[in-house]
Amino acid sequence: MAALLLMVLPVYAEAESRQPAEGISAEQHEEAVQRGRDVYYKTEGVVSGLPAPKTEDNTEHYPRYNFESRVLIWFANQQHLYYGSFVLAVPIFCMIIEFIGMMTKDKALAKRYDRLAYDFVKISLTAYSLTAILGGILLFTFLTLYPTFFGYLSSIFRPVMHLYALLFVAESGTLYVYYYGWEKMQDGFLKWIHLSLSVVLNTIGTVLMFLANSWIAFMMSPAGVDEEGRYLGNIWHVLHTALWNPLNLHRILGNMAFGGSVVAAYAAYRFLAAKTREERAHYDWMGYVAMFIAVLFLVPLPFAGYWLMREVYAYRQQMGITLMGGLLAWLFIIQATMIGALFLTTSYYLWQCMGRMRGAEQYLRYVKYLVFIMAVSFLVFITPHTMVMTPAELKAMGGQQHPVLGNYGVMSAKNGGINTIIVTTILSFIWYQRGNKIPTVSWATFGNIFMGTFFFCAYVNIIWLAIYGYYIPANVRVGLSVPQVATTLSCLVFMTVLNLFMLKGAKQGGPMEWGRMTARSQYALIMLATEFTWMMALMGYIRSSVRLFWHVNEIMRDNSPWAYTHTVGFAANMISFNVLFFWVSILFVFWLASLGAKKEPVIGKMPAPGLVPQPISDAR
Question: Is this structure's pTM higher than 0.85?
Answer without folding.
Answer: no
